[in-house]
Amino acid sequence: MKKPYSASDAKPSALFLAPEAPYPVIGGGPLRSASVLEYLARSYTVDVIVFREPGAPDPAAAFPAGIARRISVVPLRYHSRSQVSRALRNFRRFLRGAPPLNDRFSGYDRAVRSALGQNRYALGVVEHFWCACYADALREACSRIILDLHNIESALLKSSAISSSLPERLLFHRFAAAAERLERRWIPRFDQVLTASAEDADRVRALAPKTPPIVYPNAIPLLERPVVPQERSIVFSGNLAYHPNVEGVRYFYEQIWPVIRRECPDLRWRLIGKNPEGVRGMLRKDPRIDVVGPVAEALPELGRSLVAVVPLRSGSGTRVKILEAWAAGVPVVSTPIGAEGLEARDGTHLYLASKPDAFARSVIELVRSEALRTKLLEAGRALYEARYNWPAVWQRLREAGL
């Protein structure tokens, strides 16, 4: 019989299940997961279940001391990273109608139940829809279970299909339909879900009308603006193997960068983020493009540039890259979908541009005008300090009774 937590315990207990370790806190996914975990650790005794890629370092070693009572690591099956192997896996998933990441993290019920053991928890939190299939296992151990939706996967895949060409378009449409079927199946099994934006909350209501969403915005820790020397450059940041980022970089490189390059001949374009091999091939011919790759601290690297560009044409949730640019004191030019879900006004907190020429002109205008850059970056920094840092968004979780 499972032992429930006791009112005599110093804290109630919580279970936190994630497909990837939130530490080191680099990138949008880890930042969101870490914000939830660090909030829970203030009010709960937390046990963690996290997955591990074959050959990767022990994820438990990266967690800060004292944040979790117990960290259980579930090893994933080996998957070759070669292009041929990945193509074959996705072809089989296409035939079966199985979204890639849900497929990758499913099938470990025995390991998850073993990690749960005989423990009983007041609360269970699942990070990412990819692990929503463990709702039943957590329900047996937790009095209340919550799913943190970093994105609405079906919406993300649909938008990727729209902005892709054949044969990728067919692949994304197939995966989007499969993801929506799983969302309609799994989301209702949770007591509540967290979404990154009001737009995603509306999507949840359409998928699972009886499951209440809580808008929990993406945020980053409250950090000082870095003081670093600036250079004549613009910057893009993000996981450079993530499809919306790769597609956005290609769009910027082919349709926007040539105009900026011609008008600002001394300007460089810097790209920072993990998996630089995802874009290096398409950019290697231009000596004014620097693919920096992963960095230890994003804000100082962003702060070196004059403008941050967010040329995304697909996605869901909200973009942490914009929050980091605001925190770093860098003005932002974004597509409308790149800034979706943020309570920001065009012309006040950032510039929005849906067409390549308008995007290029907005960047050029900011590069040439220090006064405009200052106006935009100060408003962006103020919005980050008011609404998009961890202490500010934790209030949403307190109001929800977590």
Outline of this structure?
This protein has 402 residues and is α/β, with parallel strands linked by helices. The chain has helices spanning 28-43, 83-96, 100-105, 109-116, 135-141, 153-162, 168-186, 198-207, 243-263, 277-283, 298-303, 320-328, 356-368, 370-387, 390-399; strands spanning 13-18, 45-52, 70-75, 123-127, 145-149, 192-195, 213-215, 233-237, 268-272, 289-293, 307-310, 332-334, 351-352.
Major sheet summary line: 7 strands, parallel
String of helices and strands = EHEEHHHEHEHHEHEEHEHEHEHEEHHH
Number of helices: 15
Main β-sheet, spatial strand arrangement: 3-2-1-4-5-6-7
Measured on Cα atoms, how large is the radius of gyration? 21 Å
Distance between the termini: 26 Å
Question: How much helix, percentage-wise, in residues?
Answer: 40-55%
The overall strand count is 13
Looking at how many chains there are and whether they match, the oligomeric state comes to: single chain
Could you list the spans in which at least 5 consecutive residues all have pLDDT below 50? 1-8
Strand content: 15-25%
User: Which structural class should the secondary elements be placed in?
Assistant: alpha/beta
Question: Looking at the structure, what is the overall shape?
Answer: globular
Average pLDDT across residues? 94
